[in-house]
Design brief:
Length: about 375
């Protein structure tokens, strides 16, 4: 396991050299875990990892974290500070030891502003930019172990989706919040370690809001219900969306909207292969909406990368010229949103293969309740 993290760190240092950057500084984040094997919840204390272009990486950490980092990470140089002394002296010594004054420094994209300002104050005549340019190229291409975790999480999400959609008329009369609770219970009962994000249950007109979460609205006969959820396995999430009518006849226009969204999903999947750009996949999806004069109903990007973060590069959106490569995992999630009426969204995760892609979600796309 240590070898995986160490290899990633070496690749990051190579990218630092290619980008004429002297160091990247990481905070409590998925990037920190990706390169070192250690992470924890973000906090107010300085816990940083300095990754210079040539020298070995250095952790700056509160004393109470020292043994925890040693047991989780391959990084050997851990410089601790106490609450009584504060981090200032250790920071300044490390900056000097790594010769970071008057350097090009890349900062973890999610670093708290207080830490960024402190580093800018302490590194004399430094220039600062985001670390995405040296970490995203690595994280976008998943290794076999990462794919295994995402595949397992996707399988659990599929099983829960099929179970929930088999409720049929039993779901009529439940509130969105009550149905979301049943989704959570089933996901975690299948050995999920947590939810990928806040579950979305958007019934009737609530489904027309793409990031509606849940409410106390009661699900009624004929309501289209957007179900968007996922589960975490060893830090890696799944993410899938289905739209279901649990009972009764759907409203006028729903079946037409569903067919357009399903055709757009299929077009997006068919467009994915190595060498194609993210923008071209987005174009394939949008062309279906345009062919049916429905483009104004599709109001968000086509998809997003999935890895240690539920939303990460590559983003499948117009203008993104990132070239797709084997191992990249992202969502394709076209939707149609009719304000005040209903929404329809279908979402699958795909992994780019040597000659195309493979869908990681296998549950039925039908809008009808499952038997």
């Amino acid at each position: 396991m240590e070898g995986r993290f160490q290899k990633r760190m070496e690749q990051c240092q190579e990218l630092l050299a290619e980008n004429d950057a002297d160091a990247v500084i990481l905070s409590m984040s998925s990037n920190l875990y990706y390169l070192t094997g250690f992470t924890d919840e973000p906090m107010e204390r300085h816990l940083l990892c300095f990754v210079p272009q040539e020298k070995d990486p250095v952790f700056i950490a509160p004393e109470m974290y020292e043994s925890q980092i040693k047991s989780a990470s391959w990084v050997e140089d851990i410089r601790s500070w106490t609450d009584e002394t504060g981090p200032g002296g250790v920071l300044e010594d490390t900056i000097a030891d790594l010769d970071l004054h008057e350097s090009q420094i890349l900062i973890d994209d999610s670093m708290q502003g207080r830490f960024v300002l402190d580093l800018q104050k302490r590194i004399n005549n430094g220039s600062f930019a985001c670390a995405e340019e040296v970490i995203s190229p690595l994280r976008m291409e998943k290794d076999s172990e990462e794919l295994r975790q995402i595949e397992q999480a996707s399988k659990i999400a599929d099983e829960t989706s099929e179970y929930i959609r088999s409720l049929g008329s039993e779901a009529i009369g439940l509130t969105e919040r009550e149905l979301a609770k049943r989704i959570r219970q089933d996901l975690l009962a299948e050995n999920g370690e947590g939810l990928s994000f806040g579950t979305i249950v958007g019934s009737g007109p609530n489904g027309a809001h793409p990031h509606h979460r849940v409410s106390d609205r009661t699900i009624s006969m004929g309501d289209p219900v957007v179900l968007d959820f996922g589960v975490l396995i060893n830090g890696y999430p799944s993410d899938q969306t289905r739209t279901v009518v649990f009972g009764g006849d759907p409203p006028n226009g729903f079946i037409e909207a569903y067919k357009i969204v399903k055709a757009a999903l299929d077009a997006g999947v068919d467009a994915v292969k190595p060498g194609v750009t993210a923008s071209q996949v987005d174009r394939a999806v949008r062309s279906v909406f345009e062919a049916h004069d429905y483009e104004e109903k599709f109001i968000h990007r086509t998809g997003h990368g999935v890895g240690l973060d539920i939303h990460e590069p590559p983003y499948i959106v117009s203008g993104n010229e990132t070239v797709l490569k084997p191992g990249m995992v992202f969502s394709i999630e076209p939707g149609a949103y009719l304000e005040g009426q209903f929404g329809v969204r279908l979402e699958d995760l795909v992994v780019v293969t040597k000659d195309g892609c493979r869908q990681l979600n296998e549950s039925s796309h039908t809008w009808r309740a499952l038997d």
